[in-house]
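Project standup — Tuesday

K.O.: blocked on the structure for the chain from last sprint. Re-posting the sequence here as requested.
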Amino acid sequence: MTKTLPPGQLETEKWPLLHQGDVYQFNEETWHFKLFGAIKEEVTLTFKQVMSLPKTISTLDMHCVTTWSKFDTTFEGITFREFLNLVEIDPDVKFVKIYGYLNGDWFGYSANLPLEPLLKDDSLFVYRWSDKNHDWKDISPKHGYPLRFIPPATFYLWKGSKWVSGIEFLKEDEAGFWEERGYSMGADPWKEDRFSDPTYKPDGFKDQKWKKEENNEE
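H.V.: unblocked you, prediction finished:
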């Protein structure tokens, strides 16, 4: 079945590498995942505790704000709702921020998302992947190893935090890392909702626009 590209996107069969800051070097002894915010009791999980949670395999599409789209990548991971099951959230929680490592700060990166769209199998904290050109393998450090969030395809991929470190439960929406820098709070690829001001373009955005012949992956 032929899939429809969101407006302004180009299709790739590869998984391009784009990331902010340095690459996290996994250390199981210090790695931890925190659930906090508007909940009854905070929870901090070790890597072993996270990896003991039930697993899900889902085939997902990815749409990057830099204009590439990749269809039908199969991931194995842990759904968002498995983490939600570990806490008692306040009744008026409607949003979350998903945090990740950035330049030595365990919570340096974050992306805001509404809670409701994250409750299905297409909202996944992933650790390995495959597609028609690749057998199963772990995600690479540059792609977010050991655990990276992949959002539903109704959001641009910057909402998918790499090197994830926690989930904050919120009653009101709050800007994350890129949202504070002019990117859209909503990030809907089908509306080309890239920036909070539609006329805004970050420095170099046009020059850095992804093209098929320049695409690379690890």
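K.O.: great, moving the ticket to review. Residues 47-51 form the longest helix (5 residues). The first strand starts at residue 10 and ends at 11.
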